[in-house]
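Narrative of activities, Objective 1.

The group set out to show that a structural description can be obtained from nothing but a protein's sequence at a throughput compatible with the screening campaign. Below is one input-output pair from the validation batch, recorded exactly as produced.
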Amino acid sequence: MGMYFFCACVAGMFLLAFGLLNEKVNRTWNRIEHMIEAAKTGTFSETVYDESRLSRLEAQMFQYLVYGESARAQIEEEREKIKVLVSDISHQTKTPIANMLLYTQLLEENGELDEQAGNIVFQIEEQTKKLNFLIQFLVKMSRLESGMIEVKPENTRVDSLLGKLDFGLAARQKGVFLLVGEASGLWACFDLKWTLEAVSNLVDNAIKYTPEGGTVEISAKEYEMFVRIDIRDTGIGMKEEETAKIFARFYRSPAVRGESGAGIGLYLAREILSREGGYIKVDSHPGQGSLFSVFLPKTRL
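Output recorded for this entry:
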């Protein structure tokens, strides 16, 4: 009888201890889950918790989240600084560049310059245009990378994108045949403004690197999950090993160093498309032209 009573007491104490331990474990996990949820929603604050009353596991998670919150706040602060810097660069350079272009145009219209002076004025104007082009690209790139610009994909007709590609004059001036195919009935999920920027960079390159008498053809084709836009040219092409480099910032092929450009357009195009769930493929061979294929998702990914 005594042994039975002793065993019953031990069992009861064991169950009580197990229940208390289980309750403590549950409280610990509940607090940890609350910390993680607060961190996910951006509402985590170290003032909410008394570190002296936390278990070792909770204290470690608490310290980890405190460091993470501090790092996040520092990143946000740096991002704000970048935003201000980019805005200042854009604002401060706009007026001087506009004035330089105005003055060179006034000198050209003067009509009293000799050939040498006229050539110098022309070179100043061209270099100023290049500087303006480079600054605008750098500003766009910085805004995109710092999150100042948000790509917002939505269901859009593909022909509305192709219809806004205004390169007819540039192609005629270069002596290149520009062919734009039909895309009626095709829909995809993309940001019209920024996707137009990306595709325009590809078309601009195709015309720039296609010699007189060549052809640039733009077409669209529908797949199960994507709509593909092809930009095919009969230009100089490139080696296979270069196709892996051309999307890097500021990369320029040795074959096109004589042409204007900053090596940013393809990088910017890939960044824009990847942010809306799309991507670019390239197939090119020296002397046989290039094919750039833009894949736009049909639904939001």
